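Bug #77: duplicate submission created two jobs. Keeping one. Sequence:
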Amino acid sequence: MEIKNNEMEKLYAETFHRIEEGAILKGRVLSLKPDGVVIDIGYKSDGFIPIDEFSSEELSELNEGNTFEVYVKGGKYVNGMIGLSKKEATRIKAWDIIESALEKGISVEGTISGKTKGGLSVDILGVTAFLPGSQIDIKTIKDIDSLLNKRMLFKVLKLNNKRTNVIVSRRAILEEERDKKKVETLGKLKEREIFRGIVKNITDYGVFVDLGGIDGLLHISDISWGRITHPSEFFAVGDEIDVIVLKYDEGQQRVTLGYKQRKPDPWSTIDEKYPAGKRIKGKITSITEYGAFIEIEEGLEGLVHISEIDWFPKPKHPSKYLSIGETVEAIILKVDKDERRLSLSIKQLKPSPWELVSQRYAIGQKITGKVKSITDFGVFVGLPEGVDGLVHISDISWTKHIKHPSEIIKKGHKVDAIVLSIEPEKERIAMGIKQLASDPWLQDIPEKFRLGNEVRCKVLRLTDFGIFVEIEGEVEGLIYSSEIVKGEGAFQEGDTLLARIIKIDLEERKIGLSMKNVKKESE
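Kept job's structure:
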């Protein structure tokens, strides 16, 4: 039977007369309609909740027979049905819970829903509360975004009378938990006991470890038996580590921790376990300008000095030979237990290049090498074994007086030479270039140049005590200043002239000349 509008209003009025405005009732879903949900609230008239009060997720899970609390709107009805609100019922219930939590000092659960000026917003059963920045955590949070959409407990700090503003704290919850843990931890703290803790902070001088409500200091010197530059080499914030209590000051509530003490000191038996001369294998842990550190076992490192990496007289930077993380073999040179120093060598595992030189070369042997460097006193020639041999300036030429080796030899050029001497114990090998040919002073020069001979000369250099000349393009001689004819004009390097041999000293390998009493070329 169709109910007319006036009858419908009468029915609603009778029903609503028995229902208080603002009452919260338990409702059951009767049906879902395009514009809302029909609810049975146990009266003659059904109730109606607009569709926009439900999220798409809630609607997808909503079925006939579902029950939940609803709020009765005053003086409103839709199509003869009582106007209801699910959101308002939830909001009122949430406020009751929040008020009760504030009065009793208990915590409430909520979800961090967003960021606001000065803090975060928290959704507590549909009520938006404010979480000030100072109340977020005990420590400073670097990544605030990581907290968004996280569900956690909060303490209600303040609530205004109009139920429009709520201030909550997460810090208070964390402080309570910390204090509770601290009491438990302090009851168990004993020296030499091992505790599991979380790395809370890392500094240059050590690590602060949270043992459960109380922090202990793990000093850098108690982290490893070996060498350590910074605690961050071993730990990162948030790491769970096992530490040993070295000292507990109950009055100051100060805890000193150790990490390396969980294992015996490897240096205590080093002289027995690793005597000098023993070959070992280890991993490169650090490279410096003066060498490389090799870890033989945990907490035990030795230094390979740059001079002990390679046999080359001028070694390159250690990084040119070794890489961090590389496993290498070395030999122990020296153990200093008191100073906790271990000296290692890599090059000693290979034969010395000077040993090879002494085996491969003999005096009088001809060798070829590239000029590595030139000095005032000679030329250094590189050999395949990685060492340099010296050609002294006096062993470059039989006949020329050389002022500097660079006049004749250039760096990078290949030269032939004869081995003159080998001294492996002094790391020296002497070579000569002039020895590739016979000594002209023994036969050729005495036969070709005799006292009184007039010879053609080329001016090499002018000095206060005479003119050095090249005689017939073969040997040098000196025209004494007292034997220069005045009035012949000024001479320059490269000029040619005639002179007479007045002195031959085969022992000193010198020829003296005179310009006097020399016939003119035309004559």
